[in-house]
């Protein structure tokens, strides 16, 4: 079934990659409110078979896929007698994205989302794009594929969704600057001594957004804003030096675009991911959500401050990687994934994350990325290099974390 992009209110079949995660479950929540309009083709997860099976039954999905083959039998059992097709393995996740759904939510975490997102792009689908690591590790190649296959990439990150909604794509020359807002994360007011001893629990306790573990830690280091800066550069074709970051702890203004005449346009709302997800799901129309309404009279105050580069060096690392170009952002993102996972596993300290990313970026050559094979190679090399650095930390005592 092909649905015209402009046909607001008409059925739109959907596939949700990463349906069991934070963005995935919120997408399921919206889709389940209007199952007639949003029939589900495929749902995918890594290994959370219990939730995946429950979602597949509830949404009457045609296909449910797990990336981890070791849980295939369990998923098959849970869905036996339903007629829902079951598959497992990384290739099966990419094959799920190839199924003819009009709209695909890319909400896998990390570079594992590259192949499935690409599979959806290559068949010209509307891709709701949350999985920022994919654009960081292969931005230029990804945008070339989007153009070559006539796919539509709709940003789901709240900041990029905000920019998308106020960005003048017909007159890009009139855009002076993008301003990405940042909550500042749980350590916004903390010093480096506090961060050195920070636990996993403290790092994932985000003040305004309820998100998956990896992005929560990225928010605490502010690497998340660095990844978003790179994402914005590729999505909107704006050079790095014209993308600024502004700390705004209340997360009400989701980002801003400054035009050459001095006008600044912004998108506002309460911090609820269902709003940007719904924007992509209903695009080019809008659909209702249960998100709490913004009441500016009740909002005590909206405050702003510049990010502190000394306490949060990850932003500088991301900028430097984008300036360096080639495989540098790929290395940055891969090393960060390895380091964040090691921190979540309590194998390294919080400040080891940025150190491991910086050392990996310094140690490896920033080769040009001519094709996806080069992306995979740079990604794998960075993961090996960063993992060795994690091992070196592991030799010291981290038992108290
Ligand atoms: N959460 C937010 O509010 C938010 C906001 C903006 C952008 N984002 C971005 O959206 C993406 C998803 O974030 P999230 O917070 O939703 O993450 P999450 O809660 O950790 O969920 C990740 C999803 O990806 C699946 N997954 C993990 N590893 C996989 C693999 N190797 N292969 C296939 N699937 C895999 C997980 O399955 P299991 O459940 O089985 O592990 C889960 O469904 C990230 O790139 C993040 O930066 C998130």
From TrEMBL:
1-deoxy-D-xylulose 5-phosphate binds at residues 132, 158-159, 183, 206, 219, 224-225, 228. It comes from the Bacteria. NADPH binds at residues 20-23, 47-48, 131, 133, 212. InterPro entries: DXP_reductoisomerase, DXP_reductoisomerase_C, DXP_reductoisomerase_N, DXPR_C, DXPR_C_sf, NAD(P)-bd_dom_sf. Residues 153-236 form the 1-deoxy-D-xylulose 5-phosphate reductoisomerase C-terminal domain. Gene3D superfamilies: 1.10.1740.10, NAD(P)-binding Rossmann-like Domain. Pfam families: DXP_redisom_C, DXP_reductoisom, DXPR_C. Belongs to the DXR family. Catalyzes the NADPH-dependent rearrangement and reduction of 1-deoxy-D-xylulose-5-phosphate (DXP) to 2-C-methyl-D-erythritol 4-phosphate (MEP). This is 1-deoxy-D-xylulose 5-phosphate reductoisomerase. It comes from Azospirillum picis.
